[in-house]
Structures are given as structure tokens and as C-alpha cells.
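Page 37, continued from 36.
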């Protein structure tokens, strides 16, 4: 036989002016609801949901019973939203724990919708029973976000399931066979966001009374910031082989609700507003990028400032070398014969590295218009420093040819042509 002993506490926190959480602890059921939506809508939603559960206490010791009660709570919130425009969009999370008798003995049945949680404290260790129905939690389960990143994700307040959405409710269920000494903690996110598992474990290990433990957890959440409403229900499991004289419904022995601090009026700043959306509206987790994955895995950054500077310097050196080689390759022109024509190329004869010479001019002077003795020189290419110098060289060759022709004609009538024509032009400097 399993006997439960429970205590609870709830508080408005350090920032909000209204406590929209609602807790419940009875002989048959313990629950935490975290309302949201509008100035008063959240409080109405969480209270309405708890009221519906309370009216159906006698049928909550099974999955079907809990699901039907949650469905009625959901419809109650939806109807209230439709009837009062000021309550439109309100909703609530819900985490429920109840004992369920089975042929194998008593089982603790836990159900949750939203991001209110159930924890198991066993042998000094705390483990989370429920899965949060929130955008970052879905991304963590999909493997695209780490637990640490989820805590600071901009959509950490956006939940993906809640009571108050038209349609069928979709709770998660968990069944636990409790051992003697086990403790269960139900809480809203105002507690789980402020108190980590280690601190929860220290409290549950050191404070035996469940009500006092719940109060201390709420006090610590307030001390750590109290950014949201804070609620906690602590259940102690007493497991024996004997049957009590009490009926089954008396398996749960509930401690009185802990004193609740009055709402604070010294509000330091506007709280972050929690919202909820349909599951269909949940954005598809983004595919994790290469950089984000390296950051998540703690891998060192590849692209550092030092590396960028080095690459820029290396690029500058490579570009400088390429620029110099291109300048050297194109710093000259050369004259050569191509067929029967004299032509001018830009570049170095035969090319330089991968820079090939380009034809820039075909001279009107043909090889028959220069002295034959100049042809071997032309065939070995004559370099000049500029296009003008190359043209001047061709003009000089042609002038030489004309003078030689005229001299030969004169010599034919006055003297024997026994000598070579004089050079009357100069060869341009190659520099
Ligand atoms: Mg909350």
C-alpha cells in the first residue's frame, strides 16, 4: 500500500502583481496550474481548471478519468473565453499527480500539459518526470538546442500545449511505482526557472515536512529573483505491506496548504508575459548551422582575428607578386615578321610564365620593303620599350630601304655599286 502525504505553497513572486498560479492538494489529487493570458485571464483559467478537477475527484484514478476531467477543464476555459472578450486567449498549464490502484499495486499517475513540472526525489537525487511542452524544450528533444541554450532561448516562455485551446487535450502520462521515502515535487516554471535540481535536492533531503519543504523552495525561488509566480506541491510516499483501515480514497494524506504571502505592490518592472500557442503553430526547429554546432560542442573558433589578419597579409603578398610579374611580362613590345608583314606584339617574345604576348599592330610595311640583311634580325624579334618605339623602328627600316634603293639608282649611272648602304637611322634603345 502506498500512502501520500502532501504539502504545498504558492507565492506571487517578486515581479508580478497577481498570482495566476493555482495549487490543489486533496486526498485524491495534487495539482499545479499556471495560468496565462491578460490581466485576469490567467488567474481565471488556472482556478477554473482546478475547480473542474475538484468536481471530478471521484473519477480521477485512471488515465481515462484524468483525460476526461482535463477535457472538461479545457472546454470550461474555452467557453469562458468566448463569453467574455476580456478573457479571450486565456489558458493554463496543468500538472497532476494521483494514486491509481492496479493489479500490481498502487501506481502514481502523473499527467502534464505545458511546462509545469513533476520531479522525483529518490535516494538524494532529483530527476524530472515530465517533459516540458515549450518551444525550446521541443528543440532540445529534437537535438537542435542544448539545455543551456534553452534556458536563454527567446521563446522559452512560449508553450506548445495548454488548456484553453479548442479541440481535444493531449496530456502526457507517466506511471511510477513509488518506493518508501520517495518524494514527488509538482511545481510551476516560476520555481523550476529559479531553483536548479541540486538546490531542490538539498531542500528535499534536509526538510522532512512536505509543507515546510514546499515553503522553503518557494522562498528560495523568491530569493533567486522571483520573476514569475511560484508554486510547489511536495508529496511524500509511505509504502507499506499493510492495508490501512481507511478506504482507498484515504491513501493520500494531505497537509494543510502553506500560508501564502500577500500580493506585492512594489513592482520593480514589467514581467515577461508567458504566452501559449497551438501545437500546429510551433515553428519547425531550425537546422543547426555549422558555426552554432561548433559553438555548442565547445570547439575552438577557426576564424579568429589573428587568422583573418594573416590571410589578408598573405593575400596582399600574393597579389603583389602577381601584379609585378604581369607588369614585367607586359613591359615590352617587339617587332617581328609574320609571313610577309611586319607586326608588333605586346609582351615578351615567346611569352613569360603564363602571360602570352598579344598582337597589337600589323604594319603596312612588308618584308619586301626592308633590306634583306635586316630580315634575320626581325625573325629573332626586336624588343622595344613602347609601341611608339616599335613603330619608329619599322619606319627607320623602311627609310633605310628607300634610301638604299635611291642610292643604287644613282650609283648605277655614276659609280659601281660596291658598298652596303649607310645606316641613316638609329636603333631604339631597349631600355
Ligand atoms: Mg509561470
Amino acid at each position: 500500500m502506498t500512502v501520500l502525504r502532501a504539502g504545498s505553497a504558492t507565492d506571487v513572486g517578486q515581479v508580478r502583481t497577481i498570482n495566476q498560479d493555482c495549487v490543489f492538494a486533496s486526498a485524491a489529487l495534487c495539482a499545479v496550474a499556471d495560468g496565462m493570458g491578460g490581466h485576469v485571464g490567467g488567474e481565471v483559467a488556472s482556478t477554473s481548471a482546478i475547480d473542474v478537477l475538484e468536481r471530478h475527484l471521484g473519477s480521477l484514478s485512471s488515465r481515462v478519468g484524468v483525460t476526461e476531467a482535463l477535457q472538461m477543464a479545457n472546454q470550461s476555459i474555452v467557453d469562458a473565453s468566448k463569453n467574455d472578450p476580456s478573457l479571450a486567449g486565456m489558458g493554463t498549464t496543468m500538472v497532476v499527480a494521483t494514486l491509481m490502484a492496479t493489479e500490481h499495486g498502487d501506481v502514481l499517475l502523473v499527467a502534464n500539459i505545458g511546462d509545469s513540472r513533476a520531479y522525483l526525489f529518490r535516494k538524494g537525487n532529483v530527476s524530472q518526470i515530465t517533459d516540458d511542452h515549450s518551444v525550446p524544450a521541443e528543440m532540445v528533444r529534437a537535438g537542435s538546442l542544448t539545455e543551456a541554450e534553452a534556458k536563454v532561448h527567446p521563446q522559452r516562455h512560449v508553450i506548445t500545449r495548454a488548456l484553453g485551446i479548442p479541440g481535444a487535450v493531449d496530456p502526457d502520462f507517466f506511471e511510477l511505482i513509488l518506493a518508501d521515502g520517495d518524494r514527488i515535487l509538482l511545481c510551476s516554471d516560476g520555481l523550476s526557472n529559479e531553483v536548479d535540481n541540486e538546490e531542490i535536492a538539498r531542500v528535499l533531503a534536509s526538510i522532512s515536512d512536505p509543507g515546510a519543504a514546499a515553503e522553503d523552495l518557494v522562498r528560495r525561488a523568491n530569493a533567486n529573483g522571483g520573476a514569475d509566480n511560484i508554486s510547489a506541491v511536495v508529496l511524500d510516499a509511505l509504502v507499506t505491506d499493510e492495508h490501512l483501515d481507511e478506504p482507498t480514497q484515504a491513501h493520500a494524506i494531505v497537509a494543510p496548504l502553506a500560508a501564502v504571502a500577500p500580493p506585492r505592490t512594489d513592482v520593480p518592472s514589467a514581467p515577461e508575459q508567458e504566452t501559449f500557442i497551438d501545437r500546429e503553430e510551433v515553428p519547425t526547429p531550425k537546422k543547426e548551422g555549422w558555426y552554432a554546432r561548433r559553438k555548442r560542442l565547445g570547439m575552438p573558433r577557426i576564424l579568429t582575428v589573428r587568422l583573418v589578419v594573416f590571410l589578408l597579409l598573405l593575400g596582399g603578398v600574393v597579389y603583389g607578386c602577381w601584379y609585378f610579374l604581369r607588369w614585367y611580362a607586359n613591359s615590352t613590345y617587339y617587332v617581328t615578321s609574320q609571313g610577309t608583314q611586319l607586326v608588333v606584339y605586346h609582351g615578351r617574345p615567346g611569352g613569360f610564365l603564363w602571360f602570352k604576348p598579344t598582337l597589337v599592330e600589323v604594319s603596312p610595311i612588308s618584308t619586301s620593303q626592308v633590306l634583306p640583311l635586316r630580315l634575320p634580325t626581325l625573325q629573332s624579334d626586336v624588343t622595344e620599350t613602347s609601341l611608339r618605339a616599335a613603330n619608329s623602328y619599322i619606319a627607320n627600316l623602311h627609310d633605310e630601304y628607300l634610301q638604299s634603293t635611291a642610292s643604287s639608282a644613282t650609283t648605277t649611272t655614276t659609280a659601281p655599286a660596291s658598298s652596303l648602304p649607310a645606316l641613316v637611322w638609329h636603333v631604339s634603345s631597349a631600355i
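Residues 387-414 form the longest helix (28 residues). Flag for discussion at group meeting. Residues 34, 188-190, 228-229, 274 surround magnesium ion (CB under 6 Å).
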